[in-house]
Amino acid sequence: MNRSSRGAASGHAGSVYGERLSRLVDGAVVWHREALPRARRARVLPDGCMDVIWTAGGLLVAGPDTRAHPVDDAPGAAYVGLRFAPGTGPRVLGVPAHELRDARVPLDALWPEGRVRELTERVAEAPDGARVLEELSAVRLRDAPVDPLSRAVAAGLRAGASVATVARTVALSERQLHRRSLIAFGYGPKTLARVLRLERALRMARAGVPAASVAAAAGYADQAHFSREVRELTGVRLSALLSDRSSDKGAKRETELPSGSRTMA
Q: Domain 148-243: what homologous superfamily?
């Protein structure tokens, strides 16, 4: 989300959105979002992350997206979510990331129904529901095998290293790296690299950097290549994203949202 805070009270068109770094789960982001009292469609952009999201309807898991995910924003809906850094979600949820790729599923489809019901009630009744999600996730991470490889892979790709270079760095063949990436991130390293590069590029573009300069700095062949990637991964032109800040994921976001979150809408 890479998962540094995007601004504790960043606004999205048609919603009130805020986030902070998790105090208990390394690299995770806690976010909340309140929709305005009218229905609208939001767009969640891919960011390589997975989210656990609470709404009035219960607990939902947002898997890693390969394309922008459209969400119908219910009037006045409220959301609270925990967005995991790339590679962390599978360790918390106990399922390979590729099984949740481009999906939104109820948490009780992954965990026992009674356990999820109890957790849902705890989140709904707590003064800080996100804290409940953080505490549970921290416990599950302590019990899960440590996976230093996924962090190294994500860091290398985020820095612009080639897949071949990252594979050599982590002492894997490219085929092995692809298989491990499916489990940790939900898709292969080439797709993850595209998603992370686009996220980096959009951050620069939203800061006012000209598109041609963004393309060069982010490693695209040229501005046309950057524009094609924007349309391919988000479904709209760069100008539309820049004019509609609703396109940020927020719990995985036209208003952009988080992966379920960046603006989940």
A: Homeodomain-like (1.10.10.60)
